[in-house]
Amino acid sequence: MSDTNCIFCKIIDGDIPSAKVYEDEHVYAFLDISQVTEGHTLIIPKRHEKDIFELTEETASNLYKAVPSVAKALNKTFSPEGLNILNNNKEIAGQSVFHYHLHLLPRYGKDDGFQASWADNSRDYDADKLSSMAENISSNLS
């Protein structure tokens, strides 16, 4: 199932060219045109699902089965010092293409073009608050 307005669906359908890295019945992986770091690869499900909140368990399973193979190929090809796997969901989180996707970003050092950092707010959360939050989250699992 594809969305005719989705750039990733157009890539899967061959309407827009891409540098394909991997493909199977359920998944398509290709080099990101921005190449934040050398080898920056996107892995997408062929089924159009907007974000993690729409992602089915079946789609997730098929997608994540491909991740280790692609990551190992990136490691063998580029010998990076590490690898970030990044996923943004909804505009506020930085999602710009609304077709679920993972970024595999080989890392070559602190100045390789990718910055990942966040605040440490641990002082605002004691054990009781964390326990209460965990219970609330658990009660909403489906």
3D architecture notes:
This protein is α+β, with helices and mostly antiparallel strands and 142 residues long. It contains 3 helices and 5 strands; from the N terminus they run H-E-E-E-H-E-E-H. Strands 1-2-3-5-4 form a 5-stranded antiparallel β-sheet, covered by helices on one side. The longest helix has 22 residues, at 57-78. It is globular and about 50 Å long.
Topology of helices and strands:
Blueprint: H1 7-12, E1 20-23, E2 27-31, E3 41-45, H2 57-78, E4 82-86, E5 102-107, H3 127-139
Antiparallel strand pairs: 1-2, 2-3, 3-5, 4-5
Protein name: HIT family protein
InterPro entries: HINT, Histidine_triad_CS, Histidine_triad_HIT, HIT-like, HIT-like_sf
GO biological process, one term: nucleotide metabolic process
List its salient traits.
five-stranded antiparallel β-sheet, HIT family, subunit A, alpha+beta
Question: Quick summary of this structure?
Answer:
The protein is of the alpha+beta class and 142 residues long. The chain has one domain: HIT family, subunit A (2-Layer Sandwich).
The total number of structural domains is 1
Low-confidence segments, given as residue ranges, are none
| Mean pLDDT rating | 95
Provide the CATH topology: HIT family, subunit A
How much beta, percentage-wise?
Answer: 15-25%
CATH architecture: 2-Layer Sandwich
Spatial extent as radius of gyration: 17 Å
Task: Specify the CATH homologous superfamily.
Answer: HIT-like
Helix content: 25-40%
Shape: globular
Count of helical segments? 3
The biggest sheet amounts to:
5 strands, antiparallel
The strand order across the widest sheet is 1-2-3-5-4
Cα-to-Cα separation, first versus last residue? 25 Å
Question: What is the strand tally?
Answer: 5
